[in-house]
Amino acid sequence: MQKLTNKEEEIMHILWRLEKAFVKDVLAEIKEDKPHYNTLSTIIRNLEEKGYVSYNAYGKTHQYYPIVSKESYKKRFMNTAIENYFNNSYKNVVSFFAKEEKISIDELKEIITLIEQKQ
């Protein structure tokens, strides 16, 4: 699975949400920094070349749909981030969020409970 650019990832989130869409549908969903129609079409074709989307052809127009699930992408993205930024340690991930005050003690207790229930 090739790494996506920020814009490609933004487009994938739209396609995951819409499930099937024409370029004009995707363009309508972009709120900020709207690319030109042709630029967006090129980005979506790049996603096709990278193996993230496929399409159904209707004459000269294409309806695109994701062939990589959001869950698969998330798993790959998270594994790569944890490996690259946290020395492949989930403890380091949780410690980071605790130090940044992004996770509460109650949430940590919930995590511990979830782990204990799996054993």
Uncertain regions spanning at least 5 consecutive residues: none
The main sheet orders its strands as 1-2
Level of helix content?
55-70%
Name the structural class.
mainly alpha
Fold blueprint:
Elements (H helix, E strand, L loop, with lengths): L5 H13 L4 H7 L7 H13 L3 E6 L2 E6 L3 H16 L4 H10 L5 H14 L1
Antiparallel strand pairs: 1-2
Helix pairs in contact: 1-3, 2-3
Describe the structure.
With 119 residues, this protein is mainly alpha-helical. The chain is 61% helix and 10% strand. It contains six helices and two strands. It has a two-stranded antiparallel sheet. Strand 1 and strand 2 form a beta hairpin. The relative contact order is 0.11. The mean pLDDT is 93.
Q: In a few lines, what is going on in this structure?
A:
The chain is built from 6 helices and 2 strands. It has helices spanning 6-18, 23-29, 37-49, 70-85, 90-99, 105-118, and strands spanning 53-58, 61-66.
Characteristics of this structure?
119 residues; 6 helices; mainly alpha
